Amino acid sequence: MSVRQVLRTHPVLTACVGYVVLRAISALVIIWVGQHAYHHPSRDYFGVATQWDGQWYRRIVDHGYPATLPHRPDGSVAENEYAFLPLYPGLIRALMWATGGSFEVVATTLSLVLGVAATGMLVVLLRRFVGPAAAAVAAILWAASPASPTLQMAYTESLAMLLLGALLWALTREKWLIATVLAPVVGLARPLGPPLIVAALVAAWLRWRARADRPLLRGERIRIVAMVVVTALAGWIWAAYVGWRTGVRNGYVLTELAWQFTDKAHPFGSLLSQLNRVVPTPVSVAIAVAVGLGILALALGPWAQRLGWVLRIWVVAYLGYIAAAALVNASVVRYLLPAFPLAVVLIGAGRARPSRRQGARAIGWCLAFVILQVVWAWGVLRGPGFGGAP
């Protein structure tokens, strides 16, 4: 049986095997980086894999969330556990209790296993649009992306990608009740509220537009409205809880802004600030606009035509949200993981007439991504590993 036949007949299994192989490569990179870590010259695999955000999750697992927000000497809110949503540490705590395992083993194993499930979920989602072989290849390419080592670290990436893939599958398949249930769960795993609202509205609009061919009955209309409302509210569940628990109405927002050392949100502020360090303001704005136009072209151009409007708009909405709201640092690399539909574009499978060289493109991109994994890990994971985020 040829490789193409294997991809067509066993796409989920093939992609999951590819994910495991890539995680083995990432494990070697992590071990190598740990041997050269500064301040910790003998850090082992688990030491590297549970640093940075992992140390915040360890605090949450061991001590829970604080009753009040901590403050810096100047009175501003300091970095704290409320920036890290509760679903992932809750699963770790439950598994530690059930197995008696340590935080290091449970957290990294949980991420690794969830990453396998996420890879399979992405294949199930994408194969409807581009076929099983291209879906498997795109999922493998996603699993090779530069920050993919976080999929086996004590990070929420694996859990968030599994839930995101399932929610987008529900939206594209018009499974409104499933989407309604999943939206709050996603909201407790990763702060993806604004772009998910956009994706939900697009899915609802597409169903409304098709009502002439497929009559939209009253029951389905109710389910669609419920889905949109719940998705819109899901992104505020954690923020509302933080406000109630701490007595500070905007405590979650202040906590997120603490990493930027400000108490006021400035859309695109971090992005432009980083660019302004290198080039003058007019040039930085021009660069930001050019990047935005490039994203629009990638997601909405003919090379993404087969992906469907929900996934294409998801990419635009998500990357726009990241550019507007995220702290621009080395974490931006891992923030690209939810933009997984772009893997389809990179291998040439998104056109109306897909490229015949998808395999060659995928191999080339995978090799480049693995090299970038090494570069990213070397630049980020050798650090002290707490207080910020890579």
UniProtKB/TrEMBL annotation:
Transmembrane segments: 12-33, 103-123, 129-147, 192-210, 222-244, 279-300, 307-326, 332-350, 362-381
UniProt subcellular location: Endoplasmic reticulum membrane
Keywords: Endoplasmic reticulum, Glycosyltransferase, GPI-anchor biosynthesis, Membrane, Transferase, Transmembrane, Transmembrane helix
Pathway(s) where this gene product acts: Glycolipid biosynthesis; glycosylphosphatidylinositol-anchor biosynthesis
Lipid bilayer topology: Multi-pass membrane protein
GO biological process: one example: GPI anchor biosynthetic process
GO molecular function: alpha-1,6-mannosyltransferase activity; GPI mannosyltransferase activity
GO cellular component term of the entry, any: membrane
Entry keyword annotation includes Hydrolase: no
Principal place of residence: endoplasmic reticulum
Alphabetized PANTHER family for the sequence: GPI MANNOSYLTRANSFERASE 2 (PTHR12468)
Listed name of the protein: Glycosyltransferase RgtA/B/C/D-like domain-containing protein
Organism of origin: Allobranchiibius huperziae
